[in-house]
Amino acid sequence: MASFVSSAILLLFMFSPIVMPLPLSTNSRWIVDEGGRRVKLACVNWSAHSELMVAEGLSKQPMDTIAKRIASMGFNCVRYTWPVYLITNDSLASLTVRQSFQRLGFVESIAGIQANNPSIIDVPLIKAYQAVVSSLGENNLMVILDNHISKPGWCCNNLDDNGFFGDKYFNPDQWITGLTRMATLFNGVTNVVGMSLRNELRGPKQNVNDWYKYMQKGAEAVHSANPDVLVILSGFDFDRDLSFIKTQFVKLTFSGKLVFEAHWYGFSDGPRTWVTGNPNEVCGRVATYMLKTSGYLVDQGYPLFISEFGIDQTGANVNGNRYLNCFFGVAAELDLDWALWTLTGSYYVRAGVVGLNEYYGVLDYNWCAPRNSSFIQRISGLQAPFRGPGLSEAKPHKVIFHPLTGLCITRKPFAHRLRLGPCSESYAWSYSPHKTLLATRTHLCLQADESGTSAKLGIFCTSSNSKWEMISDSKMHLSAKLRDGKSVCLDVASDNTIITSSCKCINKDNTCDPSSQWFKLVDSTRSSTSV
Ligand SMILES: *[C@@H]1O[C@H](CO)[C@@H](O)[C@H](O)[C@H]1NC(C)=O
Ligand SMILES: *[C@@H]1O[C@H](CO)[C@@H](O)[C@H](O)[C@H]1NC(C)=O
Ligand SMILES: CC(=O)N[C@H]1CO[C@H](CO)[C@@H](O)[C@@H]1O
């Protein structure tokens, strides 16, 4: 009986929603809740900015089912896109969902929405948009309203006339009106925690003066209509460049609400950069670029939200796969907030293609199940915060994070071998000035034995085989020297045990993939079950 009661309590604890004390604000580089405790945004993008202006997927599944799937995949938030016209263009805004589909001739989708989400089929578009926000709220998911574009349609290219203030479809006054109306509409809706003012600025008109002029104006407009939301600002060149903030601060009349956002995809590093280059060299180079253009902001005391990143989840795109290993390293090391592109399993229509299958989507074509469950496993390694205000009592330590799997080095209680496991069960390490990796609260350190054999915890911590250098341009290989002077790198065997093996493609070679040997020492204060 007692054990029944306690397991019932445990179950209740596990499945009762964790209600965050909202609204959110910022404390230096961290986003925090009302109690000052860090909230890490682990979001997924859900788009509603196509010509139809309806959240994708509602013809496939009920919105509540979709919201529950988002939560069950471990995300705590949605970056939910909207076009300015949704709320400023009377002839479009007055359409119902049915009319919006009829206007463009998507009759099958109407039947699907009628079947799966009958309550929204005959309501105005904005009501349907609000219904999705409520449904996400009922499932304890935070929402960031993202102004993705002005004129509804697939986004983005340099010449789509939606790229920068003053472009044909990007009238700054209309944009401010749109932001004000959205901020007002969602004032008091507690799960709406932020507004991303404009997605991916781009095109020939980009300039710093207009950026400050309009972004500051937009931020003030949002804040005065809804002081509870975080105000999120994006940079130039498809949100790849915020380097200009270094020399000129954003001046606002309010504080504690400003967040920056940046995007990083493998294809934005160049369509074939990762396949034609050596992964260590490319990672070293693009990570440096990212730190210079946006990553530096966290050191300056601003939260940075990587609001788009992602890969083709079939694993077929080598360029994307290699990039993602590098991305995971940086995202873990800086413990960034993020939003994955994308939730969408398939679109009603994207750039003219009806029912387009979205290989970057976490849901499958029919929005029924994860497209790739191993990807969901992997991304879970970035969902929980490693550190930040108010999180736990554990002393600062390092975890050894493995980007390829999203796992950390740990050891099962009483087991002999080190292995990869969930970061919540990570060993706590310290990395000494002598480059030893000590398992904290023990006198044991990580040691290389022979190449191809398990790495061990040992007690003789001064020899070269327990001195771990971070080598290569990526700085992600942990390398030690054996007694015979040969260098080996930390690696992972197919059963997830930690071994050493000869260091892979440290430079030049572009045919080989070193990612099984990539590790990041990540600062953590998360209490762990294994120490
Ligand atoms: C409203 O949208 C329609 C359809 O896209 C467009 O033709 C019209 O120019 C828009 N009006 C304004 C004021 O933006
Ligand atoms: C899931 O992703 C992995 C890693 O990229 C890949 O090997 C696998 O084939 C993918 N599975 C599916 C079902 O696409
Ligand atoms: C993978 C993908 O299609 N990403 C797109 C997501 O949306 C942005 C606009 O915000 C596009 O530029 C990306 O190409």
UniProtKB/TrEMBL annotation:
SUPFAM superfamilies: (Trans)glycosidases (SSF51445), Ricin B-like lectins (SSF50370). GO terms for molecular function: hydrolase activity, hydrolyzing O-glycosyl compounds. Residues 60-344 form the Glycoside hydrolase family domain. GO terms for biological process: polysaccharide catabolic process. InterPro entries: GH, Glyco_hydro_5, Ricin_B-like_lectins. It holds the Pfam family Cellulase. Keywords: Glycosidase, Hydrolase, Signal. It comes from the Eukaryota. Residues 1-21 form the signal peptide. Gene3D superfamilies: 2.80.10.50, Glycosidases. Coiled coil: none annotated. Belongs to the glycosyl hydrolase 5 (cellulase A) family. This is Cytochrome P450 86A2. It comes from Hibiscus syriacus (Rose of Sharon).
